[in-house]
C-alpha cells in the first residue's frame, strides 16, 4: 500500500485512482489526520505500507523523522517548486527522495523499488525454485519464461516472496494488496485470488508452491 499525504483532497483522490490502475492500493490523508494515524497505527498496518508520499503540506506539518520512528518504508516528497533551495530543504527534513511534479505513477513506483532495494541491499527479484519473482511490477518467470498474471495475483506473489521464510496471514495479504482502509472489498477475496494463483503456478511447476495453514496464513515453499 502507498500512503499519500496532501492538504488537497482532490490530489489524494487522484493518486488513489492512478495507483489503483496499476494494481497498487493507496490511502490518502490530510496532514492533521496523518500525524494522529502514524502515531497510533498498529505495527502490522505500518508493515503493509510500501512508501509514504508527502505532497503539499504546510511547513512542519509532517516530520519524516516521525515516520522513521515507526517504519523503515521510504518517505518521498512530491515537489511543485522547482528550485534547488526547496529540494535541499526537503532532503534536510529527512526524506529519501524528492520527485518533481508532474511525474508518471510508474516512475514513482520505480523510485520506491530502487530505494527499498538499496535499503535491503537486495536484488530486484527473488528466486524460489524454478520461479523468478520480480519486485518492480514485471510478471514472474518460470524456467525463464514469463507467466502473465492479473495485477492482484502478481502483487500477492510479490508480497509472499518479499516475506519468504515467514508465514503471512490473510489480513496481512489483504492490507498489502487492497490497503487497510478499503471497506468496499471483503477480506475473503484474498482466498479467491490465491486459489487462482495456485492453480496457475501448479500448472507450470507441477507442484503447489504456496503452503497454507488455517488461522496461520500462507508462505512460499522453497
Pick out the low-confidence regions: none
Radius of gyration from CA coordinates: 18 Å
Number of strands: 11
- The string of secondary-structure elements, in order, is EHEHHEHEHEHEEEEHHHEE
Give the number of helices. 9
Proportion of β residues? 15-25%
Give the strand line-up of the largest sheet: 2-1-3-4-5
The percent range for helix content is 40-55%
Shape: globular
Class from secondary-structure proportions: alpha/beta
> Cα distance, first to last residue?
26 Å
How many strands, what sense, and barrel or not for the largest sheet? Answer: 5 strands, parallel
Rounded mean pLDDT score: 88
Descriptive account of the structure:
The chain has 222 residues and is α/β, with parallel strands linked by helices. The protein has helices at 9-21, 31-40, 43-47, 64-68, 84-93, 105-120, 151-162, 170-178, 189-205, and strands at residues 2-5, 26-29, 51-54, 75-79, 97-100, 125-128, 131-134, 141-142, 145-146, 210-213, 217-220. Helix 7 packs across helix 9. This is Response regulator transcription factor.
Amino acid at each position: 500500500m502507498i500512503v499519500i499525504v496532501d492538504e488537497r483532497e482532490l490530489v489524494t483522490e487522484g493518486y488513489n485512482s492512478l495507483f489503483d490502475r496499476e494494481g497498487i492500493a493507496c490511502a490518502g490523508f490530510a496532514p492533521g489526520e496523518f500525524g494522529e494515524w502514524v502515531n497510533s497505527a498498529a505495527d502490522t498496518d505500518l508493515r503493509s505500507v510500501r512508501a509514504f508520499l508527502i505532497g503539499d503540506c504546510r511547513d512542519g506539518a509532517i516530520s519524516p523523522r516521525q515516520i522513521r520512528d515507526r517504519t523503515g518504508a521510504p518517505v518521498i516528497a512530491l515537489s511543485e517548486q522547482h528550485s534547488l533551495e526547496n529540494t535541499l530543504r526537503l532532503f534536510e527534513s529527512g526524506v529519501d527522495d524528492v520527485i518533481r511534479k508532474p511525474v508518471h505513477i510508474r516512475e514513482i513506483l520505480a523510485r520506491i523499488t530502487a530505494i527499498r532495494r538499496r535499503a535491503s541491499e537486495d536484488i530486484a527479484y527473488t528466486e524460489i525454485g524454478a520461479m523468478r519473482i520480480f519486485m518492480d511490477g514485471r510478471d514472474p518467470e518460470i524456467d525463464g519464461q514469463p507467466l502473465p498474471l492479473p495485477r492482484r495475483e502478481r502483487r500477492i506473489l510479490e508480497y509472499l516472496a518479499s516475506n519468504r521464510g515467514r508465514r503471512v496471514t490473510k489480513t496481512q495479504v489483504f492490507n498489502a494488496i487492497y490497503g487497510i482502509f478499503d471497506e468496499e472489498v471483503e477480506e475473503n477475496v484474498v482466498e479467491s485470488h490465491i486459489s487462482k494463483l495456485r492453480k496457475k503456478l501448479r500448472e507450470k511447476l507441477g507442484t503447489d508452491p504456496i503452503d497454507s495453514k488455517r488461522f496461520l496464513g500462507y508462505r512460499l515453499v522453497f
